[in-house]
Amino acid sequence: MSTPMAVFGTGYLGATHAACMAELGHHVLGVDVDESKLAKLEAGEVPFYEPGLEEVLKRNIEAGRLRFTSSYEEAAEFADVHFIGVGTPQKKGEFAADLTYVDAVIDTLAPLLKRPAVIFGKSTVPVGTAARLGQRARALAPAGVEVEVAWNPEFLREGFAVQDTLHPDRLVLGLDRERPGRAEEVAREIYAQLLDERIPFLVTDLATAELVKTSANAFLATKISFINAMAEVCEAVDADVTVLADAIGHDARIGRRFLNAGLGFGGGCLPKDIRAFMARAGELGADHALTFLREVDAVNMRRRTRMVEMAREACGGNLLGTRVAVLGAAFKPESDDVRDSPALNVAGQIQLQGAAVTVYDPKAMENSRRNFPTLSYAADVNEAVEGADVILVLTEWKQFCDLKPARLGKLVRQRSIVDGRNCLDPTVWRDAGWNYRGMGR
Ligand code: UDX
Q1: What fold is seen in the domain 4-199?
Q2: Which residues does UniProt assign to the signal peptide (predicted)?
Q3: Of the listed 20, 234, 269, 423, which one is catalytic?
């Protein structure tokens, strides 16, 4: 069955959700306040890099199932089912999440509703937000118009967003238990195809659904910081954290995924989500429960400092006047996202210590230039490494993992490489005469 729906926000989350819901056969209106983004989307162009999304977007625009608008009036007129997929960034100078955009969707949409509506939140929010938004929506909707707020968190990873949306590990739906309504029935209709494929569907209360998302991200961040803490210990005794991760990862209770030690996590989700989680626990008087997340954050940030130290060591103890090539700017491969990018953070710190830093990334150049205009950027790997005293591999793009040491050796001033993602084979590089350093190995 095809359901007309509106999706608010056309960033990584909203644009993917809108296109994938159309792919499932629904009629979808994507809504955003940013006209330039809308113009691109309407032309079938994804405003960011996400493998596979453009095909889905174009196919569904051509099929007449997907459109975009900046008009909330049009959205209220068109759909009775609404998804909130706007951002919840970290507030400036604090740990808490900034809920301005989520609140704005409710404040603008609710007064315009003319028929009963179900609003599903997908954004990552502090627990308690859904209940508050429900109250707000009911207060703002015209008299006699029933409006329901349910929470349906999103677990997609950038780089795999289409796959994760169309074939999720699970679907989670949080309902307002005090006001039984139609949200579950509507969600079952919308996701019928996925439910037919026996994707687990967990129905719960609003607070649990919000917490599922926050705790999943906290767990992933903890797993990464755990292995990076082991990397610190490995560094102290010359042990190899990559072998350690392989060995403990064979235990099915632990699992090998998300145990890659290196420069640590960045991006628009994990760092700000663990901080917002701590801030919210504090407001709830449960801060003691999450003090360990402070350490998770600290271990993660220490990796960046350690990388700067390793670059300095590789340059003989002083970065002043050296040339440093930085390969990678995106917070992870298969993305052009540079939000809280460990790579650019390190590049910036090294530049502050007096090095001439040249950055190259296959997809994130435009975003990097905009956010870090003082760094130098190269058109390709060769240009970036020309005359370098040290090469830093800070994002594990496949093209960097496949680099040939003999060829690069002819371009650099010193054969020195620091592998911030442990994605290179130390033996191959050392055999080719390079001074190879990995993180925790
Ligand atoms: C994350 C969650 O995975 C996703 O479920 C949630 O919906 C949003 O946040 P994303 O930010 O796209 O997704 O990236 P992810 O693949 O989780 O990587 C996050 C960061 O951790 C990257 O900087 C990555 O380089 C780093 N990472 C990941 C490691 O350092 N080691 C690992 O083993 C795995």
Answers
A1: Rossmann fold (3.40.50)
A2: none
A3: 269
- Domain spanning 230-438: CATH superfamily: NAD(P)-binding Rossmann-like Domain (3.40.50.720)
Beta-bridged to residue 120, according to DSSP, are 83, 150
Q: What is the mean pLDDT of residues 157-165?
A: 97
pLDDT at position 203 is 98
Domain spans in the chain, listed from the N-terminal domain onward? 4-199, 230-438
Distant-in-sequence, close-in-space partners of 225: CB < 8 Å, separation ≥ 6:
264, 265, 295, 296, 297, 299, 300
Q: For CA atoms 222, 132, 102, 62, give the dihedral sign.
A: positive
Task: Please indicate whether the domains covering 4-199 and 230-438 agree at the CATH topology level.
Answer: yes
Closest of 138, 87, 84, 94 to residue 113, by C-alpha: 138
Average pLDDT of the segment spanning 186-213: 97
Return the residue whose CA atom lies nearest to atom 19 of ligand 1: 265
Q: What is the ipTM of this complex?
A: 0.97
Q: How far is the CA of 265 from the centre of ligand 1 (A)?
A: 6
Give the pLDDT band of residue 439 (cuts 50, 70, 90): very high
